[in-house]
Design a protein that fits this description.
Layout: H1 2-14, H2 21-31, E1 36-39, H3 46-56, E2 60-64, H4 68-80, E3 85-88, H5 94-105, E4 111-114, H6 116-119, H7 122-128, E5 133-138, H8 159-164, E6 170-174, H9 179-188, E7 195-198, E8 206-212, H10 216-226, E9 232-235, H11 239-251, E10 256-259, H12 265-276, E11 282-285, E12 300-303, H13 310-317, E13 327-333, H14 335-347, H15 352-365, E14 377-379, H16 382-389, H17 393-405, E15 409-411, E16 420-423, H18 427-436, H19 438-450, E17 459-460, H20 463-470, H21 474-486, E18 490-493, E19 500-503, H22 517-539, H23 545-552, H24 565-573, H25 577-591, H26 597-602, H27 609-621
Parallel strand pairs: 1-6, 1-7, 2-4, 2-5, 3-4, 5-6, 8-13, 9-11, 9-12, 10-11, 12-13
Antiparallel strand pairs: 14-19, 15-19, 16-17, 16-18
Amino acid sequence: MMLDKAKQILQKHWGYSEFRPDQELVISSILEKHDTLALLPTGGGKSICYQVPGLLQEGIVIVVSPLIALMNDQVEGLKKRKIPAISISSNMSFKEVIIALENTIYGKYKFLYVSPERIASELFQQKLVDMNVAFFAIDEAHCISQWGFDFRPSYLKLDVLREIKPGTPILSLTASAPPKVVDDINQFLHLKNTNFIQGNFERKNLSYYFIKTDNKANRIKSILSKNKNASSIIYGYTRKDAREFSNWLNTLELKSNYYHGGLTHQEREKARLNWMSNDSPIMCATNAFGMGIDKPDVKFVMHQNLPLSIEAYYQEAGRAGRNGDKAWAITLFNDSDIIDLRKRLQLSFPDIDVIKRIYKALTNFYLLAPGTGKGRAFPFEIGAFCKRYNLKPIAVYSSIKFLEKEGYLSLSDAARTPSKIHITASQQALYGLGVREKVLGKTIEILLRSYSGLFDDYGTVNESLLAQRIQVDRSLVVSHFRQLSKMGMIVYNEQSETPWIFFVEEILTENNVRISPENYHQLKKLAEDRLEAFIELLTTNTQCRNQVLMNYFGIKTPKECGICDVCLAKRKARFKDKKYEKITSKIQILAEQQMDYDEIVDTFPANIRNDALSVLGFLRDEGVV
């Protein structure tokens, strides 16, 4: 009965009539108020698993996520469906957080998205006591484990949710977790009588190819030239790689665009929309491209750079073929790439003294004295920081990630935070100012007409839209809002696209910063083990790639996939070279005439039709026909 109501909600708000099988199991478990641990592969529709049952139950759903950009995207998506939602992240002011939490207590919102750092704050925990919570949804739950590839100490403090709301169910979600990580999730979140639901991680339509070559560009050109207009993602290591490779493909009349974290929100959005609509079917990108991307018809995901773990590779490769059609995950590498991988890993573990010096530089950068700073957040421009202290970005970024692991601070993702306004003046005072200042008054009038609720809460505003309605330049609207903010009439938080540093603990002197050598070396050993597991996947020429992947995630797959490069090489070896070449040549000629499968096989003599059938299947799996 409840599941039928869930399907009605799915149809009403998302336009789908049925859940995927794994989604249905998770939703049924949550509706029955069980603790639930769900391992759903990338693109498995995790958000539906808590959004739909949340709408069926009394109280709010608190969603914990480490990614500001993902929280913002999901909140905006829910608002478009007329579902009240809000996010609280480390880049919000104290007053903004207070208003959001109190409005949540009073039932203004159905979904509250919150970063794990906020959960650890005394303010949040005090307000949580008064909230009517239907259940907690812990996204990216693998972050709780030191064995995981993205460990975050702030996740270890999520056990406070069980202390404050002992009877409230917890739904833990992740896209990738080896067995040891699964054990840690259960242990640290104190899950009870857990329903463990593991989705189908085996992608039977996805062919994994690892090609050793010293000329990656020509191999990619060859593949794309034979598959013009095929939706593709090409991952490179640097922003420069993405831009230059895209420009080169365009000179070959292979329509391409590029995407990286250094572009403005408008530039990234334009590139994304052109790719989604297939106006530019090829996207050259850094690993900044991927979060929230759910394009079903991606035919190729290619790696020119190599990730540092199987988890990272699997997430990126898994963006191909989500519609069930044949797709390829192609990784191009050479011996020097493997050497570079190991160098990158070493650079990601700076000496402990370097980590301490960078911590001191950060506190100086923000003028924070020892004993202060706890709970404060600041926008972080890594370029300006490195220039001031003559530091290399990789040393800074790696040191910050390690300080995160020790629980001193956290670094948010680079997310676009839209402008927000909260009106603190009375309506009478605001009206009086508008009468005295005619030009400013027009901006105030259009603001009040365009947005409601700004006297009670912070509201998202669009300066460009307001400027269009007043028929003035956007810069004038921004200037007016800044002026009103200085006058104390409004609080104006301008849009930002930078990461934020959040200081979890009080500032310490450099000498008092404790970096545990034991933790340091353990984390380094775990990272080295993950890297070696990926290199094994990369270099094997005897074991089915899919089997290597599934075994890593603790999933037993007795059968070979039959379509990865290793399996295809084994199949090809079974053909005698001359017979294979003769059959292949004839099939390719016949295929140009657009004959169907059976017609091609029937053109061969009866005694070799079985061979022709095998070769044809091989050529199909290899993408030749």
